[in-house]
C-alpha cells in the first residue's frame, strides 16, 4: 500500500506541472495506444497456430511471422521523416488505419504466401504508431519528467498486452463453445479490426503539438541539428542503442514465432495467451517505478537490468517443462521489456534534437524491427541444428548476453565510462542540451 501511495504521489506531481490541454492530449493518446496494442496482440498467441493449421511447417511459420518486420523495416525511414516534416498525428493515423485493415486481409486470403504478404503490410502499423506515439509523448513531456511520463504513457503497451493475448487464446481454445458455426480465428480477426478502427477514430481527435517550422534556439548549432538519416547512422551515441535493440529484437522475434508451437509440442494444458498476460502485468508493474527512478539515477543501470532479465527469461524457457516455469519466464521477460523499451526511448530522446526525433526513433527502433525479421526466419532455419525449440531459446539467451556485454562496454565514450554508466555510477555523456 505504501508503494502504491508513493507512486500515486509521483504521478500527481508530474501531472500537476502539465497544462490542461496537454493532459487531455495525453489521456486521449493513452486510450489510442491501449486500443492499438489490444488489436495487435490479440493475434500473438494464435497466428502461428493458424499458419500451421493451413499446412505451414516450422520454418514457414518463422518466415511468415518475420514478414511482419519487413513492413516495419521498409517503412520506418520514410515514416520517421514524415513525423518530423509533417506531423506526429498523421503517422499515428497511418498506424491505426493499417491495424484496422490488416486483420480483414487475413480473412480474405487462403494461402501461406497471401498471409505472408498481409503480415508484411501489418508491420507498417507498428512502424508508424510507435514512431508517432513516442515522438508525441516526448514532445509533450517536460524534460525533468521525461522518463516518468514516457514510462507511464507506455503502460498502454503492457495493459493492451495483458488483455489481447489472453482474450485471443481464450477465443481460440473456446471456439467450439462460443462460435459453433464459425472458427475462432474469424471472430478473432474481426475483433482485432474493430479495435484498430476505434483507435483510428480516437486518433483523429488528437491535435498536433509539434510544428516543423518552429525555429530552434539561435544558440543551437544548425549544422548539428540538421542531420540526415545516414549521419545519424554514424553517430556513436545512437549506434549502441540500435545494436542492443537489434539483439533484443532477435530474442523477441524468436519468442513470438515459436513459443505457441513449443507449448503445443510439450502438450501442456497451458493457454499461451497467459504467458503474454503475465509478461504484461510484470511489465506494467515495473514501468510504474522505472521511469521516475531513471530520471533520478540514470538510464544505464536499468537498461543493464533489463538485459539480465532477458537472459534469465530465455534460460527458463529453454529448460521449461511445467506451466509454472513458463509463467516465471513470462514475469522475468515482462520485467525486462518494462525497463528496456521506455528507457531506450528516453535514452535516445536525451541524445537527439526535437526536430530529428522521428528519424532517430526510426533508426533505433529499426534495429528492433530487423531483429524481429531475422529472429523467426534465422532461428527457425536452425531449429534442426539447434535440437528443436529448447536449442532455439538457449541461443536466444546467448544473444541477450551479447547485448548486455555490448552495452556495458560500449555505451559511453570509453570502456571505463561505459561500465560506470551501465552500473548507474556515471551520467550520460552523450545527452544533449536538456532545453532542446
Question: If you had to describe this structure to a student in words, what would you say it looks like?
Answer:
With 436 residues, this protein is mostly helical. The protein has one domain (19-208, 227-422): MFS general substrate transporter like domains (Growth Hormone, Chain: A), CATH 1.20.1250.20. The protein is built from 20 helices and no strands. It has helices at 2-16, 20-41, 47-53, 58-85, 88-108, 112-140, 146-153, 156-173, 175-178, 184-203, 222-225, 229-233, 236-266, 272-297, 300-318, 323-350, 357-381, 383-386, 389-410, 415-422. Helix 7 packs across helix 16. The longest helix has 31 residues, at 236-266. The protein is globular, with a radius of gyration of 21 Å.
Provide the number of structural domains: 1
Helix count equals: 20
Global outline = globular
* Estimated structural class: mainly alpha
Number of beta-strand segments: 0
CATH architecture: Up-down Bundle
Features:
single chain; 436 residues; mainly alpha; Growth Hormone, Chain: A; 79% helix
Question: What are the SSEs and their pairings?
Answer:
Blueprint: H1 2-16, H2 20-41, H3 47-53, H4 58-85, H5 88-108, H6 112-140, H7 146-153, H8 156-173, H9 175-178, H10 184-203, H11 222-225, H12 229-233, H13 236-266, H14 272-297, H15 300-318, H16 323-350, H17 357-381, H18 383-386, H19 389-410, H20 415-422
Helix pairs in contact: 2-6, 2-8, 2-10, 3-4, 4-5, 4-6, 4-13, 4-17, 5-6, 5-10, 6-17, 7-14, 7-16, 8-10, 8-14, 13-17, 13-19, 14-16, 15-16, 15-19, 19-20
